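Researcher: Here's the sequence for the chain we discussed earlier.
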Amino acid sequence: MGRGGPTSAELLDFVRRAAADSELIATLPLDPEGRTWVRLDGPRGSEAWLIGWPPGTGTGWHDHADSLGAFATAAGQLTENSLSVRLPSDGWKTLELHEGLDRERRLAEGQGRAFGTHHVHEVLNPSATEHAVSVHAYYPPLPLIRRFSRTGPVLRLEQVERPEDWQ
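Model: Thanks. This is the structure I predict for it:
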């Protein structure tokens, strides 16, 4: 990468190891209403989070801008809906997506995945009764998150969040 940061494979290895650490996972407070999170020290300057997902909660559509990332499920099951196309990094508010771009992955306990820059996805806990817990890592540390709304094939940029909005 030239900047000396971790690769997406290294991030994936980190989140998988952290997700398997039952003592670490037990430190996360769970809330029946909303997601909870604890910041972790990621490898080589990356940003990492332990996140609790009450039943039926999700992120909504978003990306992590110029950051690589990885996440792994530590407990329960998560569903990731994503787009199999890289979106332009800026200069647009609304895009009409072609058919066939949607991908769905189910990540059971112990499963994870890595992704590159400008990866648009939403992550959901589909369970009606069980909490899910996951570990996420990003490099470089998140400069911003772009949030989108989706109506059928139309993806609309709704908001840009910066680190001060979630820390």
